[in-house]
Design a protein that fits this description.
GO terms for molecular function: DNA binding; DNA-binding transcription factor activity. This protein is mostly helical. Helix content is 70%, strand content 7%. The chain contains 6 helices and 3 strands; from the N terminus they run H-E-H-H-E-E-H-H-H. Strands 1-3-2 form a 3-stranded antiparallel sheet. Strand 2 and strand 3 form a beta hairpin.
Length: 134
């Protein structure tokens, strides 16, 4: 191991080379609960195989989980994420077009929210000045 490699990078590289994962492995790797993973499964976003009552996740499921978590972190709804994942095996151009459309919508929403925040902050500063001079 190179001294610059972090433990997380080594664990990620190890995980990427594996074919099968238990739910606890994925939960630990991504710092989420097994309940969250089961929730994503219940919404049809993940489809692990079952051996008795045990869920067996494959590399594809891990990749989908990465996309789900990235989408959530960026503020996309589960519906948006589901739409994107439904194109996972489809034509790459359809996937890119949908992603670009959803990203543009998200940027527009965040810009509107930023404008609203700037306005609110300005108004609160004015109120504070008025309160200080009263």
């Amino acid at each position: 191991m190179c001294p610059r490699e972090s433990t997380k990078e080594v664990k990620t590289a190890d995980a990427e080379s594996r074919d099968l994962f238990a739910i606890a492995d994925l939960a630990k790797e991504f710092g989420i609960s097994t309940r969250a993973i089961r929730f994503y499964e219940s919404k049809g976003l993940l489809s692990p195989e079952r051996v008795g009552a045990t869920r067996i996740f494959r590399r594809r499921d891990r990749a989908r989980l990465i996309l789900i978590l990235r989408g959530k972190r960026l503020g996309f709804s589960l519906r948006d994420i589901s739409d994107y994942l439904s194109l996972y095996d489809a034509d790459r151009s359809q996937q890119v077009n949908l992603l670009a459309e959803k990203v543009d919508e998200r940027i527009a929403l965040l810009e509107r929210q930023r404008d609203d925040l700037d306005t609110t902050i300005g108004e609160l500063r004015e109120i504070r000045k008025l309160a200080e001079t009263a």
